[in-house]
Amino acid sequence: MDILFLLVPLSVILVLAVLGVLWWTIYTGQFEDIEAEGERILQDD
Q1: Cα 17 to Cα 11: distance, rounded to the nearest angstrom
Q2: What are the DSSP calls for 1-45, one per residue?
Q3: CA 45 to CA 39: how far, in whole Å?
Q4: Residue-wise pLDDT tens digits, 1-45
């Protein structure tokens, strides 16, 4: 039972960290043009 006092806050922190990273990637435009990166590796330059 004592381990829950450690695991619950750690899981909340982990969820907040994942949501923060997801918000950051969306905010900085990482997902603006996902088709271009797939096409870029197929082109011979």
Answers
A1: 10
A2: -TTHHHHHHHHHHHHHHHHHHHHHHHHTTTTS-HHHHHHHTTS--
A3: 12
A4: 899 999 999 999 999 999 999 999 999 988 787 788 788 888 876
Token representation of residue 39: 């096409």
Which amino acid, 23?
Answer: W
Whether the CB-CB separation of 31 and 25 falls below 8 Å is answered with yes
Across 4-17, b (16+ Cβ under 10 Å) vs e yields eeeeeeeeeeeeee
| C-alpha count within 13 angstroms, C-beta hemisphere, residue 27 | 6
